[in-house]
């Protein structure tokens, strides 16, 4: 299903009178997403190294008769898109790396595969050789952990995705006092989450601080990606994101990811949509 655009031209809230403190994210570890009876968790979602990152992905509630792919791909992937822009190469393919995994009762000798356990459960380890691989750069672009059941988009259940944040490698020119790229982009948690538990029809507001003044901010709400356009930091570096809890956000845990286009700063926050 193509990504839904909630609305365009959304303006940021005015800078707060009292500056909010900026702190490193207290990452949900593991980060978890849920779709109906299916649940997926990843061992780490923020501050992933740009090389040799390892992730443990677990799931439950899956249909054991339907194979599933587990991979790290660009965040703008839609249900109808093939898994081509992913770390480790196109999936499925003969790349046979440990950067993606197959969950199946018949893994056919794949290098990185797992068999479903009781209740449609699984556990796989991903080894990401580099955060910039196969035409994907997860340091400069937004990436997600994706679990996709096999089959055509019309018949399979929805993809489950979890937003990931990768740290940039240290700059070779870090000794230069004038360098603006020597520090790896930071990951910050939200200063305010108006509705930790939200219901259909309510308005959610998430506030981050520490962004570059007036920079454009790329905002995505997961698990099925929903893009919010027109977000710009205030002169004080405050980013306030307000959006409706629509039926595009199914009951379960969702992640708000904000990425500064200039600073590379990544803001991560989670909230729960509660069933009526």
Briefly note the structural class of the backbone.
mainly beta
One letter per element, helices H and strands E, the order comes to EEEEEEEEEEEEEEEEEEEEE
Radius of gyration: 19 Å
On the 0 to 100 scale, the average pLDDT is 79
Which band does the percent of strand residues land in?
35-45%
How many E strands?
21
Low-confidence stretches: 1-29, 172-184
Main beta sheet: 7 strands, mixed
Helicity level = under 10%
Distance between the termini: 24 Å
In DSSP terms, counting alpha (H) and pi (I) runs of 4 or more, how many helices?
Answer: 0
Anisotropy-based shape? globular
Could you walk me through the main structural features you see in this protein, from its secondary elements to its overall organization?
Helix content is 0%, strand content 38%. With 276 residues, the protein is mostly beta strands. The strands form five sheets. Strands 1, 13, 15, 17, 18, 20 and 21 form a seven-stranded mixed β-sheet that branches.
Write the layout of secondary structure elements.
Blueprint: E1 4-5, E2 31-35, E3 38-42, E4 51-60, E5 68-74, E6 101-103, E7 113-114, E8 122-130, E9 132-133, E10 136-137, E11 143-149, E12 160-164, E13 187-189, E14 192-193, E15 197-198, E16 203-208, E17 217-222, E18 226-228, E19 239-244, E20 252-260, E21 266-273
Parallel strand pairs: 1-18, 6-7, 13-21, 15-21
Antiparallel strand pairs: 2-3, 3-4, 4-8, 5-6, 5-11, 9-10, 11-12, 14-16, 16-19, 17-18, 17-20, 20-21
């Amino acid at each position: 299903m193509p990504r839904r655009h909630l609305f365009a031209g959304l303006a940021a809230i005015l800078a707060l009178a009292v500056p909010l403190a900026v702190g490193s994210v207290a990452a949900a570890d593991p980060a978890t997403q849920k779709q109906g009876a299916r649940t997926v968790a990843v061992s780490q979602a923020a501050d992933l190294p740009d090389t040799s990152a390892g992730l443990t992905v677990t799931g439950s509630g899956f249909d054991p008769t339907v194979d599933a792919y587990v991979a790290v791909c660009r965040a703008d992937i839609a249900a109808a898109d093939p898994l081509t822009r992913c770390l480790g190469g196109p999936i499925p393919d003969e790349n046979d790396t440990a950067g993606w995994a197959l969950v199946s009762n018949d893994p056919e000798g794949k290098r990185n595969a797992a068999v479903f356990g009781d209740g449609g459960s699984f556990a796989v380890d991903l080894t990401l050789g580099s955060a910039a691989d196969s035409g994907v750069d997860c340091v400069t672009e937004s990436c997600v952990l994706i679990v996709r059941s096999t089959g055509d988009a019309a018949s399979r259940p929805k993809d489950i995705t979890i937003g990931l944040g990768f740290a940039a490698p240290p700059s070779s020119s870090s000794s230069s006092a004038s360098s603006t790229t020597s520090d790896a982009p930071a990951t910050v948690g939200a200063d305010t989450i108006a509705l930790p538990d939200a219901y259909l029809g309510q308005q959610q507001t998430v506030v981050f601080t520490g962004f570059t003044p007036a920079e454009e901010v790329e905002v995505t709400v997961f698990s099925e990606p929903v893009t919010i356009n027109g977000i710009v930091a205030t002169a004080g570096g405050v980013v306030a994101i307000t959006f409706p809890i629509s039926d595009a956000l199914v009951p379960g845990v969702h992640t708000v990811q904000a990425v500064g286009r200039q600073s590379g700063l990544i803001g991560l926050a989670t909230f729960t949509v509660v069933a009526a």
